[in-house]
Specification:
The complex is a heterodimer of chains A (408) and B (435). With 408 residues, chain A is an alpha/beta fold. In chain A, 32% of the residues lie in helices and 30% in strands. Among the domains of chain A are: 88-159, 2-Layer Sandwich (Dna Ligase, domain 1); 197-353, ATPase, nucleotide binding domain (Nucleotidyltransferase, domain 5). In chain A, helix 9 packs parallel to helix 10. The longest helix of chain A is centred in the last third of the chain and has 25 residues, at 289-313. Chain B has 2 domains: 12-215, Tubulin/FtsZ, GTPase domain (Rossmann fold, 3-Layer(aba) Sandwich), CATH 3.40.50.1440; 230-333 and 379-404, 60s Ribosomal Protein L30, Chain: A, CATH 3.30.1330.20. Chain A binds chain B through residues 44-45, 47, 49, 83, 231-233, 236-237, 239-241, 243-252, 282-285, 287-288, 290-291, 294-295, 298-299, 301-302, 306, 309, and chain B through 259-260, 265, 394-397, 399-400, 403-404, 406-408, 410-412, 414, 416-417, 421-422, 424-427, 429, 431, 433-435.
Amino acid sequence: MSKPQIVAAIDIGTSKVVVLIGEIFPGDRLNILGVGQASSLGVRKGDILDFMSACNGAHAALLMAEQNARTQAEVAFLAQSGAHLDGFAQRAEVNVSASDNKVRPIDVQRLLAEARKKELPTGRLAIHHIRNSFKLDGRAVADPQSQQGEKLELGFWTVTGDEAHLSNAIHLVNGYNGLEVKDIIVSSVSAANVVTPEMEKKIGALVLDIGSGVTDFALYRDGHIVQTGVVPVGGDHLTNDLSLGLRISRKHAERVKLSFGQAIVDAQARSEKVWMVGDKSVGDRYIPRLAICQILEARVEEMFSIVKKRLEHLGASLTPEDVAAGVILTGGTSRLPMIERVAERVFGLPARRATEPAWLTESLRGPEFSTAVGLLFFALNAPGRNDAKNSPPKGDGLLNQLTRWFGV
Amino acid sequence: MSNPAEPPAHSDAIAQGQMPEDSIRVKIVGIGGAGTNAVDRLQLDNFGLGLRIAALNTDAQSLNSSPAPEKLLIGRSLTRGAGTGGELEVGRQAAEDDRDRIAKIFQGMDLVFIVAGLGGGTGSGAAPVVAQIASEAGCLVIAFVMLPFTTEGARRRQLAEQALGELRVQCDAVIPLPNDLLLQHLPEESTVLDAFGQADAWIGRAIRAISAILFHTGLINLDFATLRRTFTPRGGKTLFGLGQGAGENCVAEALHDLMLCPLLHTPELSRRADRLLVNIVGGPELSLARVNEIVAAIAEKFGSREQTVLGAVIDERLAGKLEICVVGATEVRAKQTSVASLRTAPSGLRADGPVTPNAPTIFAKPPAAAVPAVPPPVHTSKLRGTKDGGAAQNEFHFVGNDEQRGYFDSTDRNFFEGEDLDVPAYLRKGIKIEL
């Protein structure tokens, strides 16, 4: 067994930074040693607006996690979200080279090289090429190696990001005692991988990670992610809508959202009134719960329809047959009562809140942690340092060797 | 909130036409269909300020039915008086073609209110040009523009956004009235027409309030120059709010009403100001202590006290009542210099220049250059970092300083299918929220 590696999983969200310190025995097992959290400042809608404030938040969380774990991180895995992320589907095909028509590893390598050829606009970087099922002469095969056929095809979902945003995030982590970022994983992929059971990945599932600033989504078909995306709307928008609609401060709006928020107007909400502050202070006033729920419902419904439109725009099928496991909601905002019912209505699919894997300790099971836990997963399955076969080609600096291959 | 359409209680001197000859000359110009309708209503309401009203349109039919005393059909050769068909460029060209005739409207005026509905052709296209002409004539230009309902579609919204940006450059102050927002203040069963009426009522109220600043001699007097200075340098975001209160707690009530003013809750309007002008109109019992209280509270909310200019007017008819009007401006980076420099031109130029067709120094600019690109909405406000405890104001349940500045103000706008996702969803969908 190889020596364990101490990994920091860093998720810089819009409202808070979550850091998990994990002890990784590559390809074997992982122990979560410490947790650190800090409120995130200077981040809006998943993008870093104020570098210094964001630094302070992230470094505080890192420090807390390291103290909690009583050890220091050797490398970091970083989650990335924000509106700058984009993606596109592509297909690559090669003719099987061997004369006996048996697929060799070299054919697969050529296929992957094909996908890499796609040129990106200046300033854009490919973060992931997520492969979908292989097709050999038109039929889907799980593993084409040693099978016979003439033409080998592979579909990819390529996730791209803005170079400046990515290097900013890396610098931020580097600023913490020179901590090295080993890999960047897109939040949607990271969270989806944790909260979706293998079975559901096979039959098709749509995972929505609704955070404070953004909503990340990932669509599974046949066990692979076929599409991801980011909608720059999240819990902050709920709060902002409440603040403007009810003419109350952000602070009070946040409290009202957490205490009385509900994504659907029901009979009870129609008649109830609630206190804005609730401590009988001067200036406190009654707010009809109907108003609160109407505002939230309008926003949540719109948020889901945007995700739906984005998916359909890229040709994804959202029929109950193709997405049999339905919609899985995670992220802090998925705690909003009845939000799953709005998702059911909009997508016409069964929807539920995500359940975290049973082996996770109680304190890490909140939907806020899915992304960070997912990062540790990737660290676990990441190619080891000496694993020459899978390691990306060496370039100068991390950005050049950023692209990660999934499922290859 | 009392009905904004009710006649003003404080229009004495002007109502009776006692304005001395050398006083400030004000003209209200309605542009396009919506603008003309709005000024017609002002005319009908006839709140007696002796204001001069003019209507300007590309549509002859709509113009004919307007009771405005001064009417101008523009772009006759371009559209044959049949309107622009929603084409912004046609509206712009129509105004460009008739620059000389438009300039005549503004001859000798000091203050011009431009009223237009954005999203159509004439309002969006012609208004920035008209504003520029008025500025060149040396007028202080304040525009009230109605923004289309989100449900009217992305195209209209886009046109409106573009025109709004251009207007900000050409006017001293632009006060947008989003129809989405005004609908919120109407009962459930009200119609779209009611919402348009609501916009008109707000415009009337705002024009009265600004006129009150200028025409009433007060306890603490504000003059035209102060108003003008508030909006210098130009091109900033405007802050505008009105509040009324009556009875024993009129101060608290008026402040509360001001806080609820829908115009202070739009993404298009600023919520903090680098320069702020507060005018208070109250009955004879208005004491300096009260005035102080109000100003402290308002300065706390919208800007720092040093930058706040105060006016207070006593109106006998307002016994037991109080009206507050706040006007302010936030600086944004892009500044208009070409018009500002014209301002300081000798007065001879100001009077004759715009009407003379051969004044090439002013009109040599091609139309494209005359209407600069939309300034980027980047704040250079000095208020960014101010953070001080406003404990004394808690009784009016004011909120912390940073809290009500639109949370997403500093981020890029968030467009999806032509709608800005940072604007509350319920507003864009026209869902009425009862408080």
